[in-house]
Amino acid sequence: MLSAQQPSASERPWLDPGATPQIVIENVHKQFGGFTAVDRLNLRIYRGEMFALVGASGCGKTTLLRMLAGFETPTSGRILIDGVDMTDVPPHQRPVNMMFQSYALFPHMTVEQNVGYGLRRIRESESVKSRRVAEALAMVQLEALAGRKPHQLSGGQRQRVALARALIRRPRVLLLDEPLSALDKKLREQTQFELMNIQYQVGITFVFVTHDQDEAMALSTRIAVMNRGRVLQVGAPADIYEFPASRFVADFVGTTNLFEGTIERSGAGLVAMRSLETGTELCVDDGGRHEAGHRVWLSVRPEKIRLSKQPPEGERINRLKGVVWELGYLGNRSTYRIKTECGKIVTVFAQNERRSSQWAIDWNDEVYLSWTADSAVLLAD
Ligand code: ATP
Description:
single chain, alpha+beta, Rossmann fold, CATH 2.40.50.140, 2 domains, six-stranded mixed β-sheet, 8 helices, 20 strands, 21% helix, globular, binds adenosine-5'-triphosphate
């Protein structure tokens, strides 16, 4: 989350076993002919969440969103929103609205007319409708552009028109399919903050699909990582990042280094594994039960690895030697790819704290890699 404050317990209802979810996705299965797009999926989403669905292309994210909206019907299973079974409820009668990736604005209509279009099925007087349009435009700060046509707007402004049109019906849940994908990187980051502010103002649940993991990390209360129609892990961004449940999740969300090995011994919170690739013992702070001989993978994020030209001081655990194989300067940080003595390539991110054209550590330098036992995780799958 981008917010400066840690969410309180009441803002994390998923941790409260007594809390009632707003959306219950129960054993939902979707078959297109012989192809399974969504596979007996279960999810619970709480009121006010900014919930992200992430996963590789074709894993079923959009299909799930479309079933929530009512544009697709589950082959089996059911979806409840605020306790009501949505099976027989048509899209326009559901308390949800969807904002499409393409924004689907009408080119011949002005901004004001596009936003007002969202009220076409609402039985209200024209004056009430005008007031609601004005309020919606104010919310996305587009009052001054009310008379323009979509082609006279920037990408970010078009996104805000689509958002206002989707929110004007006051849905209880807003579904967003790749809401920021049409924007360039800089604008996307700025718009992420705007989207969060608007969601906070309106207080409704947002469920969004994204390809962009950084966006999911920055925006969401929780993330569901999907693969082949299934949810592999659901959690707050930091939990998913720091405690991935499987290699797929560790690798999909952010960058990681994986070392395959077998458990050698385990005790007092510290587990030692023998890495097949490095031939060395690697240690992880892990309270779980692990039996000697079990096959595991150690995952360590690139920013958790220290890089030095001198042998690191302290305990000789989790230490490898190698040479700088590749080096990428990214402004705020550098990415090193280190070829270790055993031939395995390890990625390391280092912050560029000082302004210098001289690399402290350069191509072909001999270096040591080290990390603490509590900065890695063990994965059984
Ligand atoms: P992307 O990130 O590429 O948008 P996605 O995770 O949103 O992918 P979906 O659009 O949900 O994926 O599609 C899931 C799978 O179901 C894909 O393999 C897709 O080809 C298939 N699929 C989706 N809609 C249909 C359909 N109407 N008929 C047949 N197959 C479909």
